[in-house]
Inverse folding.
């Protein structure tokens, strides 16, 4: 059996790793931790007036994606280490795009048996504003999703 | 680890897919399955005959949970069934706390629009309110545009 864990560096995602590792260990399975770099988030120019230095503007966006990639790689390294400490076989994969779309796609295409994701337990109001990756995965994934608090 | 797994059921295709997943897990972890049917008394108007109606819903709930228990036991998994009254997600949350549940397994419909809102909202609320992990399973019929699963899940939701 092989499982995916969606990680974002939060406490909740650490708990999802711990839980998934426990289950994978007991089931004799392996884990793959994934983080999805979402360039959309960095596409907005913000409220600053554009000074006409379009080159600099582009550079800022490019650097942001590079930062996000670096952050993603770091998160994944920590996550793999965390999972391996429990004795389970773990790998990582950096994805690009909206996690709510990329993670279910990978889970289905690569034949995973389950997806684990943390949930912050936000109030209704917060969730309506911020959305929730967990909720999006539950809605979209054809592979079973375990939401961990 | 999973020792006691709760599978709320409304007799729908989603709940059936959830039960299959729960049975597979219970086999692996030697866990016990609790099948729970909630009779939503809020949906019954307080009129003459309401008591009869609740009683007949309870009987239907018992049939549904009995069938789930039989399916689990046929797979060699120990199981028990319960029927309770209340609002579905609240009753499920209380049951989790009162029975030391380690995992809740529920179906999702994965459809868009009103239908998902109506049918999937219990799962969504449980995901938000329960402290233990919630495993959500998509009903296989959802992958087709339209299928036999429709009438089944509507029967269950009625």
């Amino acid at each position: 059996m092989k499982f995916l864990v969606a990680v974002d560096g939060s406490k909740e995602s650490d708990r999802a790793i711990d839980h998934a590792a426990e289950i994978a260990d007991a089931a004799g399975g392996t884990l793959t931790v994934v983080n999805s770099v979402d360039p959309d988030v960095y596409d907005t120019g913000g409220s600053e007036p554009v000074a006409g230095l379009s080159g600099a503007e582009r550079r800022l966006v490019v650097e942001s994606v590079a930062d996000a990639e670096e952050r993603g790689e770091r998160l994944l390294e920590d996550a793999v280490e965390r999972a391996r400490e429990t004795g389970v076989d773990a790998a990582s994969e950096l994805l690009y795009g909206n996690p709510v779309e990329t993670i279910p796609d990978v889970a289905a295409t690569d034949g995973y048996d389950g997806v684990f994701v943390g949930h912050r337990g936000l109030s209704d109001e917060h969730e309506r504003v911020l959305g929730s990756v967990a909720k999006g995965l539950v809605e979209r994934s054809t592979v079973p999703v375990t939401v961990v608090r | 680890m999973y020792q006691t797994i709760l599978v709320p059921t409304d007799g729908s295709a989603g709940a059936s897919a959830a039960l299959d997943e729960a049975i597979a897990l219970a086999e692996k972890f030697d866990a016990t399955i609790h099948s729970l049917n909630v009779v939503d008394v809020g949906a019954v108007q307080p009129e003459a005959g309401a008591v009869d109606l609740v009683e007949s819903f309870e009987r239907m709930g018992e049939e549904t949970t009995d069938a789930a228990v039989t399916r689990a036991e046929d797979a060699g998994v120990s199981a028990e069934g319960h029927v309770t009254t209340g609002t579905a997600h609240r009753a499920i949350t209380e049951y989790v706390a009162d029975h030391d549940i380690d995992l809740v397994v529920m179906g999702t419909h994965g459809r868009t629009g009103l239908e998902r809102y109506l049918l999937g909202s219990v799962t969504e609320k449980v995901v938000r309110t329960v402290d233990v992990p919630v495993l959500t399973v998509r009903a296989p019929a959802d992958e087709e545009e339209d299928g036999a699963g429709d009438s089944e899940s509507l029967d269950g939701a009625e």
